[in-house]
Amino acid sequence: MKVVAAMSGGVDSAVAAARAHDAGHDVTGIHLALSRNPASYRSGARGCCTLEDANDARRAADVIGIPFYVWDLSDRFHEDVVEDFMDEYAAGRTPNPCLRCNEKIKFAAVLDRALDLGFDAVVTGHYAHLRTAVDGTVEMHRAVDPGKDQSYVLGVLTQEQLAHSVFPLGDTAKPAVREEASRRGLLVAEKPDSHDICFVADGDNAGWLREKLGERAPNHGGAIVDVSSGEQVGRHDGTYGFTIGQRRGLRLGVPADDGKPRFVLDIEPVSGTVTVGPREALTIDRIVADRPRWCGAAPTSYHGGVQLRAHGAEHRATVVVDDDRVEIELLDPAQGIAPGQAAVMYDGTRVVGSATIVSTARADVSA
Amino acid sequence: MPAAPDTLPDVQTVYLDHAATTPMLPAALEVMTTHLRDVGNPSSLHASGRAARRIVEESRETIAQAINCRPGEVVFTSGGTESDNLALKGLFWSRHDADPARVRILASSVEHHAVLDALHWLEAEELAVVELLQVDRRGRLDLDGFREAVERDPASVAVISVMWANNEVGTLQPIDEVVAVASAHGIPVHTDAVQAVGAVPVDFAASGVDALTLTGHKLGGPYGVGALVLRREISLTPLLHGGGQERDIRSGTLDMPAIAGFATAVEHAVKAQPEYAERMAALRDDLVRRVTEMVPAAHLHGDVDHRLPGNAHIGFPDCEGDSLLMLLDARGIECSTGSACSAGVPQPSHVLLAMGCNEEGARHSLRFTLGRTSSSSDVDALVEAIGPAVERASRGARDR
Which residues on adjacent β-strands are paired with residue A223? Predict the structure, then answer.
């Protein structure tokens, strides 16, 4: 096959590209320029020539012996991922930009462009395992390394996208990948894993949002209210700085009656109210989600597993699908689940699909 | 030792990026490699030092003769970027020190980044006020606008910089007219002639410019060596301080072997210029004609009459230039989307934007540049590959 290997400059995508090359594919390495860094003479940076990751990816491509190009997807990334991230937080939800990037950029904009240019597939360093079933459909399964499994952030991929994807690392544990990189002479072998959201450089989401949202912020402050007393227990600088289940940074002036810590239970962007309460109040076992994306045929209802955040636990669940509406009943309750997060549904190790959480509830509390 | 054949080593490669860099002239390579075996710092007083110094001075005289300046006006540098920085910062500081009212720097908006970024630095960090002058749709300086900018307040202009030939679209600038306006007010003119020397006639003394940048690797010499030709009467504040080489204008041990190779290349390029220009222009016209036959929507950017002979800068509507570049590269055909950028992120060209292209249009272009080793078989290969490549690349652009 003629494939493009998306190379971030990290160890995983470098080894994935090398494996695809070894497997006999005609591999072209590409690095995605995602950061919108407009021409700025004053800083001396022109949005190019400064990216260490691009250079790391280029050096890996040299070592593997494949051609290498940088594809500028910064406009698409800004529109589809960064703007969405801001809109979601402004609306009081908690988005997952990595999922969004896979859905809109890596396996959409990049894949489309690759197919148009005569390539057959996109290779990435994601930890997930693809298998072709007897009927010819491509199934995505969890990676063998449970600590690295990334099937959650790939749960948005459709059959069409999966059919043009190659994940060479799904059968390997991370330490073995590092070892292999080192054996292959890839200088990124020891490079640390990335964790934070790539466009929030210092990991300070609230600070980043405060700076970027500006006038678009639904509010610039409001009351923090205790769920049981209904009284105001503090003030905040903007609802977008909060996520459901958050405990730190509340700076509450009034201690709780029981002296126990309080958590964010609800965010109301229009009134600017953040509701806090005890940990127990975070427990939910009913989820309604929309915008489902199925990896294969859409199921109607089934018993399986649901994962509610990246690297989170899998909950046993009953899933009922009614067109665009997905109702999930958890057998093992979950805590701190926020609207906007993705619910990724599994059947054993196989990914069934994903949907975006709209609301949550507790069976014995609300209807 | 037999001379190496005057072609690129890999016969499969169709190299159409001579404006980025061009292969070394075999004679220059031989001179340089021979002298790499010599010992002797040109600044040393002993016999080996004197021998090295002699090579440097002979090289200086060779270059002076080739471009018609005095040997003492040739200041060796590490190449085009250094020469541009030295000229602009050095002239600005010196002129501003002599009269603090001189704060303005006038330059065309299509200068190379070695000029533009040096100017933006002077504006951000020093007291300079930079005015970038408009060009017309063919990339040629708007002389009325230029004259107005000078005459609005000539006493406040520290220096003027207008390139001899544009590196992207190949447009030649009206240097004579620029000098005529500037000299009426005693304002020094710098010109970046990196793309011009060897391609079009360049006569330093006759041009009337005060400072001229040239570099080795664009005309068959080695990388990492160039010169600023600076009129003897002009005073300039140095960037590099140290051993006081090059009349104290540019300290640093002279790279004698590279300088010798550079001089050989300049001498040859200037001598061969008329025949070279004629051959390149014929080949270039053939390339443009046949590519636009294959792709009727394609069109030449720049100025048809005032143009570098080896430059074909072509717009392919509805095609991403970088997709096209990649598809051609896969066929061994090497060209450029504009000027080379080391991280490889394609930015819309400031040159095309200045010429009135919109951002979309600026992304749809490729630059093919011919050089000494180019032949009609290179053009044949491009003409054969371009149709299918454009077809594919526009399919990619259409979906977005």
Answer: A235
